[in-house]
Design goal:
Layout: E1 42-46, E2 49-57, E3 64-68, E4 71-76, H1 82-91, H2 93-112, E5 122-125, E6 128-134, E7 141-145, E8 156-160, H3 168-198, E9 204-208, E10 215-217, E11 222-226, H4 234-246, H5 255-264, H6 268-277
């Protein structure tokens, strides 16, 4: 919405005009810091942001760029000058800034999702919040359900057979071990459901701790699923299970492959988006 125009007044040519005092300029608020690679050696002004970027010279025909957790990385042929590279980046600044802000928000959420491994902390399990309870009377880890909690208050508690003075490492190891056992049990159940629905044969299921992959499938019928999927709700787990089992019929990502997935998980796009946007606890 445009600002209203300033009021005008008629002045005589001989009237003395006193200029209004110039208001003190307010210091510009610093732009929020955007993700930046420690290898960034260049910087460019995009909108109100000074955006550092890493420049890699590569054997390629065109300028390419990507935005990841460490900010903007650019690949360009050796014969392309820096001015031309910067011109391309300016032309794509809306996309670049949007992706950088998305990475910034993701990092904020990842920081917020960090778990302090102690009594009273919360860990996601099957899409729900589980409160950790140090309970020396308990053996191992036991999940309890309360039906009389207030709205919005987690109704699941995981009782851990540890003393109150247990270290963060002890708590983390016991919780992780319990989650991995639950992951195997749940994955086996869901794989049994979907192999029957899809008419495929799975020869082996194993758990993965891969940093960047949720699952994989081999032509021999073996399936690997990332145990951290157990943090998500069942619709997301079902999507990944169906995705990997579909590879036993189509070892590609062709239209035929997605038709197989859609035949057993209609509207899988919603689960796929939740998987991409999800932020999980850190185990370091």
């Amino acid at each position: 919405m445009p600002e209203p125009g300033l009021p005008t007044a008629q002045l005589s040519l001989f009237d003395e005009v006193t200029a209004p005092p110039t208001p003190a300029a307010k210091p510009a608020a610093p732009a929020p810091a955007l993700p930046a690679s420690p290898r960034a050696r260049h910087e460019l002004l995009l909108g109100e942001h000074r955006v550092p970027f890493e420049l890699k010279r590569a054997r390629r025909r065109s300028i390419g760029f990507m935005v990841g957790p460490e900010g903007l990385a650019v690949s360009a042929p050796k014969w392309v000058g820096l001015a031309e590279i910067e011109s391309v980046l300016v032309g794509k600044q809306a996309w670049i800034l949007r992706k950088l802000h998305e990475q910034q928000e993701r990092q904020r959420r990842q920081h917020a999702a960090r778990v302090e491994w102690r009594d009273g902390s919360v860990v996601p399990f099957l899409g729900e919040s589980v409160i950790l309870v140090l309970d020396p009377r308990c053996t191992g880890a036991v999940l309890h359900t309360a039906d009389n909690t207030l709205p919005g208050v987690p109704h699941l508690t995981l009782h851990l057979g540890l003393p109150e003075q247990a270290s963060a490492e002890q708590v983390r190891e016991l919780v992780q071990s319990w989650l991995q056992r639950q992951a195997r049990r749940i994955f086996e159940e869901r794989c049994a459901v979907y192999t029957q629905r899809m008419g495929v044969r799975m020869t082996r299921l194993s758990l993965s701790s891969a940093a960047t992959r949720w699952g994989s499938a081999s032509a021999d019928g073996s399936i690997r699923l990332n145990w951290r999927l157990v943090h998500f709700g069942l619709p997301v787990i079902d999507y990944v299970v169906a995705h990997e089992l579909a590879h036993l019929r189509e070892m590609n990502h062709s239209a035929a492959f997605w038709d197989v997935v859609r035949s057993v998980v209609p509207g899988f796009e919603q689960a796929r988006a939740a998987l991409r946007e999800g932020v999980l606890p850190a185990y370091d």
